[in-house]
Amino acid sequence: MKLYNLLTVYPEFFESFKSHGLIKKGLDRGLISINVINLRNYTNDKHKRVDFKPFGGGPGMIIQYTPVKEALKKIKSSKTILLSPQGKLLKQSKLNELSAENSITFICGRYEGFDERILDNLVDEEISIGDYVLSGGEIPAAVIIEGLTRLIPGIPENMESINNDSFCDHLLDHPHYTKPSEIDGFSVPDILLSGNHSEIKLWRRKQSLGATYLKRPDLLKNVNLSKEDDRLLQEFIAEYQEKKSD
Ligand code: SAM
C-alpha cells in the first residue's frame, strides 16, 4: 500500500480527485491511501490562519513555518515534497524514482508561497510541474499522485500499455487508430489491418522514433539507437520528406 499525505488549506479540493478513474480504483483496492491534512488544524490562531505578511514588506501572504512543522510531526517516516515553481522540473524519470517510495507527503502552497525555513529544514525535495505559476500546490500534487498511481501494478488494467507510453524508453508513443477503419475519406494505415504482428511491431517502432524526431528531437539525444532503430528512423525521415514534397 502506498500512502500519500497532502498538507493543504483546501482539503475539499481532493474530494473529486479521489472519486474517479485509477485513483478511485487504487483506493477501492487498498493499493493506495490518500490522507488529506488540513493545515488550519495545526495553527493556534483563533481565526485558523496559517499565513502572515512577509517581513520586509511587499505583496501577498506567506505560509508560516509552525503549522507545517506541527502537521509533519504527526506523519511517520515519509518522503516530504514541497510543490513550488522553483523546484526541479517533473519528468517521467522522477515519477519512476518516486514510485519506489512507500509514503510521500506533499506540501501544497498557496498565496505568495512558504516561509523559506520550511524549505530549508522540513523538506526533502522541491518539485515543479512546469515553468509557469499556478495559484496553489493542490493541482501539482494531484499531477504527481496521478502519475505515480498508474505505475502501481494492479491498478491499470494493462501494465504493458503503460510500459509503451511516451517517455518510458525516452521516445514518444506511436500513433493509435480504432474503428471505423475509414471515416470522412481518412483511412487507417494498411499495415495495422494486415494481422502481421511482427510487421506491425516494426511499423510502431518506426512511428515512435519518427514522432520523437518530429515533435521532441531533444529526447533522441538520450537514446542509444540500435542499428535497426537508425534504419527505421532514416526510412521514416525519407518517407516524411517525400510526403511533404508531394
Ligand atoms: N511566489 C512564488 C514564486 O514565484 O516562486 C509562487 C507562489 S504560487 C502563487 C503559490 C503556490 O502554488 C506555490 O507555493 C506552490 O505550492 C504552487 N505552485 C504554483 N506553481 C507551481 C508549479 N509550477 N509547480 C509546483 N507548484 C506550483
Brief write-up:
The chain has helices at 13-17, 21-28, 65-73, 92-98, 116-122, 138-149, 159-163, 197-215, 217-220, 227-245; strands spanning 2-8, 32-38, 51-52, 62-63, 79-89, 103-107, 125-128, 182-183, 186-187. By secondary structure, it is an alpha/beta fold. It folds into 2 domains: 2-159, SPOUT methyltransferase, trefoil knot domain (Alpha/beta knot, 3-Layer(aba) Sandwich); 164-245, tRNA(m1g37)methyltransferase, domain 2 (Trp Operon Repressor, Chain A, Orthogonal Bundle), CATH 1.10.1270.
Question: What can you tell me about this protein's structure?
Answer:
The chain is an alpha/beta fold. The protein has two domains: 158 residues, 3-Layer(aba) Sandwich (Alpha/beta knot), CATH 3.40.1280.10; 82 residues, tRNA(m1g37)methyltransferase, domain 2 (Trp Operon Repressor, Chain A, Orthogonal Bundle). It is 39% helix and 17% strand. It contains ten helices and nine strands. It has a five-stranded parallel sheet, sandwiched between helices. Strand 5, helix 4 and strand 6 form a beta-alpha-beta unit. Helix 3 packs parallel to helix 5 and helix 8 packs across helix 10. It starts with a strand and ends with a helix. It binds S-adenosylmethionine. S-adenosylmethionine binds next to strand 5.
Give the bound compounds.
S-adenosylmethionine
Characterize the largest beta sheet: strand count, sense, and whether it forms a barrel: 5 strands, parallel
Please name the CATH architecture of the largest domain: 3-Layer(aba) Sandwich
Query: CATH fold name of the largest domain, please?
Result: Alpha/beta knot
Give a count of the beta strands, DSSP E runs of length 2 or more.
9
What would CATH call the class of the largest domain?
Answer: Alpha Beta
Count up the helices. 10
What's the helical proportion of residues?
A: 25-40%
Strand arrangement, largest sheet? 2-1-6-5-7
Bulk shape: elongated
Mean of residue pLDDT?
A: 97
Order of helices and strands: EHHEEEHEHEHEHHEEHHH
Radius of gyration over all CA atoms, rounded: 23 Å
Span between termini:
55 Å
CATH superfamily heading of the largest domain:
SPOUT methyltransferase, trefoil knot domain
Return the domain count: 2
Residue stretches low in confidence (pLDDT < 50, at least 5 long) are none
Class based on secondary structure composition and strand pairing: alpha/beta
